[in-house]
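Fold it.
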Amino acid sequence: MISVVLVASEDLQGLAAQMAMLVPAAVDGLVKEVVLVSGGEPGVEALAEDSGARLVTTPGDRLAAGAAVARGDWILTLRATPVLREGWREPVEKHLAGGAGGAAVLAAPGGLFSKLSPRLHGVLVRRLDWPMGGGDEKALAKALRAKRLDY
């Protein structure tokens, strides 16, 4: 159902931790695939091979490159940090069941001013609604008028 587009970095431990948080959702069928998008960082190819993730290497817009090969009905963008925490699935599943196809931002409170500046974990968007312009997650969320999902 969901293709996770995970933007690689040199933080291999963070990438591995992020992927580990996705395993139960993959086993249950919520996550259909993980597309690991790299700019050529060392060790990422081996991580993709060991985990079964699809690897895309590009010098350009990584989110757009990952979305272009995604096969799920929905795309969830993620980076190595911040790593998803327990409980991320519930708001995502509720949104998929009743969100009327709208985009959403997955956010977790973090710090003293968490109500004012939650930590952006990713953007959830239907693959068919992915904009042609590309950009980062904040621009994507703004362009799609994404609803905020706190967990």
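The longest strand covers residues 31-38.
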